[in-house]
Design brief:
The protein is built from 8 helices and 7 strands. The protein is α+β, with helices and mostly antiparallel strands. The chain has one domain: DD-peptidase/beta-lactamase superfamily (Beta-lactamase, 3-Layer(aba) Sandwich), CATH 3.40.710. It has a 5-stranded antiparallel beta sheet, sandwiched between helices. Strands 3-4 form a two-stranded antiparallel ribbon. A hairpin with a 2-residue loop joins strand 1 and strand 2. The longest helix has 16 residues. The protein is globular, with a radius of gyration of 16 Å. The protein starts with a helix and ends in a 13-residue tail after the last helix.
Length: about 220
């Protein structure tokens, strides 16, 4: 985290057998495109033929595809997926930012997303989504993507135009197992590119000792 702090504020969390260990920024903030993971799972349950949109939403973070998936699944089904991971936060349904999706404004902390990652492989119907989380577009494969993780990122500006950049997923520990990790970054200059650099620095630090991270309760 210290490597990233020169550029802004950041937070990280890792889930383990004794709960979530977190540091840095811990507030619940907009999930942005990370919420596409539970949406994709819920949509596949409702309609397995949605696999094309699921691939686009997860690997390329396609917003139009995510809107179609959300329409297919509905809020209650997405809430059910979140609940199965142990989260009590419902997907946001209020249009708080007219230029953005309602679901992307769901407020989640890094601890919430580490918990989601910890449970993800045990959630019914998550297998296809997890596979796609290992095929993220190279242009979005910064941060956890540099560690070969199964992950999803999200990013967007606050009302002042300052970007948040976040990721969550499962990081390989080097022995065939995965660790559940979540990152968030708030660059001081508000730039998306700086947020990417911050997550790269955080991933570099994490990568120095992945074998010491706790293994996820649910393994892909």
């Amino acid at each position: 985290m210290q490597a990233a702090s020169a550029w802004g504020t950041a937070g990280a969390a890792v889930a383990g057998p004794n709960g979530v260990v977190a540091s840095g920024e811990q507030g619940a903030t907009a999930a942005w495109s990370t919420i596409k993971v539970p949406i994709a799972i819920a949509a596949l349950r409702a309609d397995p033929a949605a696999s094309g949109d699921v691939a686009a939403a997860i690997t390329a973070s396609d917003n139009a595809a995510a809107e179609r998936l959300y329409a297919t699944a509905g809020a209650d089904a997405v809430d059910a997926v979140l609940s199965e991971s142990g989260l009590t936060v419902p997907v946001n349904t209020a249009k708080t930012r007219p230029e953005f999706s309602t679901f992307g404004q769901t407020a989640l902390s890094v601890s919430d997303e580490a918990q989601l990652a910890d449970s993800l492989a045990c959630i019914a119907g998550a297998g296809q989504v997890l596979q796609l989380m290992g095929q993220v577009d190279p242009g979005q494969s910064y941060g956890l993507g540099t560690l070969g993780a199964l992950f999803k990122g999200g990013w967007g500006p606050d009302t002042a135009g300052m970007y948040q950049v976040r990721q969550f997923g499962l990081v390989p520990r080097g022995d065939g197992s995965y660790a559940p990790v979540a990152f968030t970054a708030f660059p001081a200059d508000g730039a998306y590119d700086t947020g990417q650099q911050m997550l790269n620095a955080m991933a570099q630090r994490l990568g120095e000792g992945t074998e010491f991270l706790p293994a996820a309760r649910c393994q892909p």
